[in-house]
Structure formats: structure tokens, C-alpha cells
Amino acid sequence: MGIAAETLTVGVATPLSEELCALIESLEPRVQLIRDQSLLPPMRFTADYAGDPDFRRTPQQQSQFMQLLNSADALYGIPDLSTPLLKEVVQQNDGLRWVQTMAAGGGAQIREAGFTRHELDRVAFTTSAGVHGGPLAEFALFGLLAASKSLPRLLRQSQAHEWSERWPMAQLSDQTILLLGLGGIGSALAEKLSALGVHVIGMSRRGETVPGVAEIIEPHNLPAAIQRADAIVVSLPGTPRTEKLVDAEFLTMVKPGVTVVNVGRGSVIDEQALIAALEDGRVGFAALDVVETEPLVESSPLWEMDNVLLSPHTAALSYAQEEQIARLFARNASAFLDGRALRNVVDTVHFY
Question: Over 70: is that where the pLDDT of 296 sits?
């Protein structure tokens, strides 16, 4: 969705440094970023789009913030990462035509906002998909290597000062790895795994060819692929169609000791079923950057399992992320202004 226009007024709704504001405006001079840094929460770390949780606007500042957002043709970010506030802006600002979310999985935020069909048709919502692919692919590879090279045992023995007898370690080059999701993350991982000699199977509804994937399977052939896989990597978005795809029935089909990695959404895996499979050995190791409920509840058995590697949904963050999203936005802004199709538009039927 693009609308040919001479200029584009963009309300900065999320923390964005003046340096990156200047970068966007230099890359696309037809963009005017309207912002007031005093109205935005300071970042605590790179790509901290929520900002300092102690930040508060006065009533006057909140009114100024809303006026700024309601005067924009487009928004850079979801204001305060608040879907109710985003919905309020969309309802009040009849001129709003485009919202750029910071998350690769921004579709879930758009679904959560509960927009009407008219609002979804009027405003284009785009995500930062592709920016996070490299970091998440590396974390997935790290999880696969951690399982193959006995990381839990090495850590236990190191902590116990135990120099044991030798044992053979698995090699990724001998393995068949199933990728559930062949978007930016899955595609980046497939190339890395293929370079290591891994036989990569990828599930796709569209059957497209992906570099590094030796076999493309359709969903109806998934059971046979599950049984062959030495490891399974999930990078699927969270949608009603993918919810608890990896469930108890799925986990009855795996090879004993299979590795499971999740760098997609926690909702794709039935967590209780995964815990049961980790306890009885059907799953030998799990590397999880996401879980069903975040933060992970204190009572979860996952905390205590030494065959689980937990990351607090941080594997996507990199020092380059803020600039990469800014550059992506500038490219999309050019497309918008020229009337060309935007990249990473949220599917407002399935919300991914």
C-alpha cells in the first residue's frame, strides 16, 4: 500500500535518537519527522522501545504527545508500546495512513488492538521483519550446537571440577534439522546450517524454494519429517493457525532425544507438553528465547532443568538493530511516497 505524495509527516512515537532521526531524513528528504524528545522515555539499553518504566508525562505533556501523533501521516513505532493508545490515535487521526512497528512480530500487536475492518483497510501496518533474522538465526545455531556439544554436561562437570572419561559428541553435519518457518529467521538459519553440511528440511505452505533447504515439505507431510528430524527449530509467528502447533501429539512423533529450539513465538509450543517431553527424554535439549507467558513464571519447571537453555526474549537484540530499522523505514517511506508497495505489511487476516 503506497500513496504517491510530495511529503510525509511522521510522528516519532517511540524512542529514537536525534542521530537516527537525521539519518532517516537524509535517506528520504521528503520525510519530516516530528518529535519532542522530552515526551519520549529514555532508553535503558539498545533497542529499548518501551523505555524507562519510571518515565511519566504530565497531563500537559500527554496532551502534547497526542497532538503530535494526531497531526502525523505516519507513525514511527507504537506509542508507549500500548495497543490501546495506538487504537486511540488511529480513531482520532483520520489522516493517519501508515504505522511502522518495531517488532518483527508486530502483527500480534495489531491483532491485540482490535481495529475495525475499516481501520485496518485505511491504515497500513508494517513490521521490522528481516532485521532480526540474523541475530535469531545465530541464537538458534547456538542452541543446536549447545545440544550437539553437550553444553549442559560440560557446565556441570566444570562446576564440579570433574575431569571425566571422554565421550563422543554429535556433529551437526550428520544431522537432519527441520525448520518450522522459512521467513527471515528460517531462511538465514538454513544458509548457515547448509554451510555446515546439515540436511535441512523446511515446512512451507507455498512450496517456494529457499537457499540452503534441501527439502521443502507441505504441512500434510509434517509427521514424516518430524520422525526424521534430529532437531526442530521453530521460527513461526504467533497466529491462531500456529497456536500450539508443537503439542503433545506432535511430540509423540519425535526421535528420542530430539533438540527443540524456539526463536518464534512462545504460543507455537504447548509448554506443558514440552516439559513432559523434556522430563521423559523424548526431547533431549531445548533452547528457548520465548515462552508461553513472559516473564516465565517463577514456578515453571523450565527454570530448574539442566537440559534447557533459557533466554529472556533477548536473542533478537543487537547493537545494529536501531539503525537497521531506521534504514528499513526510510526505504519504505520512499516506496510510500512513490506509490509503490510497502515491505513487511501485516496480513490483517492472519496477523503476521
Answer: yes
The arithmetic mean of pLDDT across residues 208-235, rounded, is 96
Peptide bond into 312 cis (omega under 30): no
Distance CA 301, CA 171 (A): 29
- Residue 94 CA to residue 242 CA, distance in Å, equals 34
Q: Are 290 and 262 in contact (CB under 8 A)?
A: yes
CB-based burial, 71-106: b 16+ in 10 Å, e otherwise: ebbbbbbbbbbebebbbbbbeebeebbbbbbbbbbb
Stretch 157-161: mean pLDDT: 97
The domain segmentation of the chain, as residue ranges, is 8-131+318-338, 133-310
133-310: CATH topology = Rossmann fold (3.40.50)
Sheet containing strand 258-262, strands side by side: 215-217, 199-203, 176-180, 231-234, 258-262, 283-288, 308-310
Distance, C-alpha 176 to centroid of its chain: 24
Say whether pLDDT at 2 is over 80: no
Which of 320, 330, 321, 318 minimizes the C-alpha distance to 23?
330
pLDDT, one tens digit per residue, over 76-125 is 999 999 999 999 999 999 999 999 999 888 898 999 999 999 999 999 99
CATH 3.40.50.720 given to domain 8-131+318-338: yes
* pLDDT tens by residue, 131-148: 999 999 999 999 999 999
